[in-house]
Amino acid sequence: MTVPNNMPCKDNGIIGSAVSSAHPSLALIKYWGKQDGTRNIPATPSLAVTLDGLTTKTRVDINRPVDGRKEPDRVFLEGILQKEDRFAPFFAGFRKLTDTMKPGMGRFIVTAHSSSDFPTAAGLASSASGFAALSCACAAAAGLELSAEELSAMARIGSASASRSIYGGFTRLDAGSHIAEPLYGENWWPDFRIIVLELEKGPKNLSSRQAMERTRLNSPYYQAWIDDSELLMDRSLDALRGRDLDALGPLIRNSYLRMFATMFAADPPIIYWKPISLAIIQLCDTMRSEGFSVWETMDAGPQVKLFCLKNDVKAIRNRLIGELNDLNIRICRPGGPSSVQNRNET
Ligand code: PMV
To answer: Does position 124 have pLDDT exceeding 80, yes or no?
Structure first.
């Protein structure tokens, strides 16, 4: 990862710096659709697990503007400067917080460098880990002592799934909610495993934001998806409480397939799937018929992730390698919360 780790020397222009990291939040039960279309308030409840094997690291420097000049906040992902508008609502929210909590801080400019050890914008929940890490680093660099709830609300402004990545283990984000909630810590289900299959490295051509909005505005199945979502969530919470993968698995499958059904029905349709995605879905079905409890899910991209238990990992992995070529396979466990590694506040 290419995030500079050395803290700058204190000088008049620097307000503070911090480095933080976070893991993606992979939904078992999906959030898809925003209540009002603009703020990231989910229209459906989601249930997710934070993944230990994938990490985003972000460094934030907060400076006073040189000679009072008006300069934009800048975010570099893997060294590439990102479009301002994607981050503008997040930084507006951050400024609102600093105005309230540190009114003496005055005007400032944020520069962020972020890097992940997995492909970004490709359906591997990089926006979740990205905005969670950015929130922690911004708060630490500004010297704001925020609770996990406050960080979760801040991360949500960037991306709703990021509100879950603030916490480790299993989390929920309810429909209409501003903050995610931790349900069970990362050690609560020691045998639970997530197999992440990296099928495509390139970024997707339609962001989840755009796709969600198109679905909300013109998919005739959207309302049915919303109506169904609370029942699916309640049943999943029961299955998770019992650490019962055989009960949870079919609900995981219902959730992602119903989410995609709304996308396929949008106009124009949204199709993230690739032939290899479908091949893996079908292979999971075959493995289930042979007695494995293995359940696939997908997000806004072609990647497929599988849920299973520790004892089955080896056999499932061998089967995947045996049947499909060139798979990049990562085995993850439930991971820990986002954290700050380094901080320097003037
Ligand atoms: O938070 P966003 O904008 O990255 O959207 C996440 C959407 C899904 O990954 C498809 C589902 C989810 O709950 O994470």
So the answer is: no
Quote the CA–CA distance of 65 and 75 in Å, as a whole number: 16
Q: Can you list the domains of the chain with their CATH numbers?
A: 1-346 (3.30.230.10)
Q: Enumerate the H helices of the chain as residue ranges.
A: 84-101, 126-142, 148-158, 162-165, 208-218, 222-241, 245-264, 275-289, 313-323
Mean pLDDT of all residues in 53-81: 92
- The whole-angstrom separation of Cα 118 and Cα 1 is 10
Cα separation, 158 vs 135, whole angstroms = 9
Rounded CA gap, 258 and 229, in Å?
9
Q: Are 344 and 12 in contact (CB under 8 A)?
A: no
Q: Average pLDDT over the chain, rounded to whole?
A: 92
How many CB atoms sit inside 10 A of residue 38's CB? Answer: 9
**How many angstroms does the Cα of residue 13 sit away from the middle of ligand 1?**
37
User: Tokens 């992995």 map to which residue?
Assistant: 317
Handedness of CA 343, 61, 146, 39 (dihedral sign): negative
Task: With 0.90 as the threshold, say if the pTM is over it.
Answer: yes
Which atom number of ligand 1 is nearest to the Cα of residue 29?
Answer: 13
Q: Which two tokens stand for residue 173?
A: 């984000």
**Minimum-distance ligand 1 atom for the alpha carbon of 259:** 10
The residue among 209, 99, 122 whose CA lies nearest residue 157 is 209
CA 299 / ligand 1 centre spacing (Å): 7
Ligand 1 atom at minimal distance to the Cα of residue 46: 13
**Bridge partner residues of 20 (DSSP):** 58, 340
Task: Indicate whether 83 pLDDT > 90.
Answer: yes
**Could you tell me which residues are beta bridge partners of residue 198?**
328
